[in-house]
Amino acid sequence: IAKMLPEVVFVLGAPGAGKGTQCTFISKEFGFIHLSAGDLLREERQRPGSEYGEMIEEKIRNGEIVPVEVTCSLIHKAMEKSGKSRFLIDGFPRNKDNLEGWERVMSDKTKLLFVLFFECSRDLCTDRCLGRGAAGSGRSDDNIESLKKRFNTYLNDTMPIIDHYDKQDLVCRINAEVSPQEVFADVKKCFTALGI
Ligand code: UP5
Ligand code: MG
């Protein structure tokens, strides 16, 4: 009998598109465990004794992407620690290094169900992140300088990953420019279409 592999959904989209917000809804409705790669990196950055703290902070502030060995191992550990078998992996894989690293280590340990992709304009995403910063997010990248860099990285490095999955017909594309409730109504369709 084939062993059941843990199932994953990758959640991608521009900075501020609403990945985290929607993952919270999905997790409640469908019972997936929400693992935000960014949150895992921010946690690792704060961990006393971490050898990666400074490197992570510098990458985040500059909107650059942390080497996959670090991110993938944090994701893998969080999956094992949860003891669960269905995961939303939020904000990963964001570039070719991430994709290749995941495929090397995780692709035969997991089953990729599909990729949720939130489409949202640069202006709207920037406003959302700046609003969150003004409201006291405490994130060192919710400022206009970092946001410019985050967006460039998104366009240059992450869009090709979405194209890669699109060619495999694995992308469920969502208009993220409407209210969170309206976005979620569309998100649900991606899951129910798969019988989830
Ligand atoms: N908001 C959400 N939905 C809304 C809606 N429909 N209408 C109006 N407002 C909406 O939302 C952002 C803000 O918008 C919030 O205030 C929310 O209330 C509002 P959120 O749900 O947080 O959006 P999200 O897409 O999760 O935005 P986030 O800023 O988290 O996206 P990023 O992709 O930029 O951040 P992440 O944490 O994933 O990564 C940060 C950095 O970590 C990266 O730049 C990179 O340096 C590093 N990183 C890696 O190196 N590798 C990784 O694998 C992952 C991250
Ligand atoms: Mg997020």
UniProtKB/TrEMBL annotation:
Its EC number is 2.7.4.14. The keyword ATP-binding applies. Its cofactor is Mg(2+). A ribonucleoside 5'-phosphate binds at R42, E64, I65, V66, G91, F92, P93, R94, R139, R150. GO terms for cellular component: cytoplasm; nucleus. It comes from the Eukaryota. ATP binds at G16, A17, G18, K19, G20, T21, R132, V178. Keywords: ATP-binding, Cytoplasm, Kinase, Nucleotide-binding, Nucleus, Pyrimidine biosynthesis, Transferase. Binds 1 Mg(2+) ion per monomer. It is found in: Cytoplasm; Nucleus. CMP binds at N98. It holds the Pfam family ADK. It catalyses: UMP + ATP = UDP + ADP; CMP + ATP = CDP + ADP; dCMP + ATP = dCDP + ADP. The keyword Kinase applies. Coiled coil: none annotated. One of its GO terms (molecular function) is ATP binding. GO terms for biological process: 'de novo' pyrimidine nucleobase biosynthetic process; pyrimidine nucleotide biosynthetic process. Residues 36-66 are annotated as: NMPbind. Transmembrane segments: none annotated. Belongs to the adenylate kinase family. UMP-CMP kinase subfamily. Monomer. Catalyzes the phosphorylation of pyrimidine nucleoside monophosphates at the expense of ATP. Plays an important role in de novo pyrimidine nucleotide biosynthesis. Has preference for UMP and CMP as phosphate acceptors. Consists of three domains, a large central CORE domain and two small peripheral domains, NMPbind and LID, which undergo movements during catalysis. The LID domain closes over the site of phosphoryl transfer upon ATP binding. Assembling and dissambling the active center during each catalytic cycle provides an effective means to prevent ATP hydrolysis. This is UMP-CMP kinase.
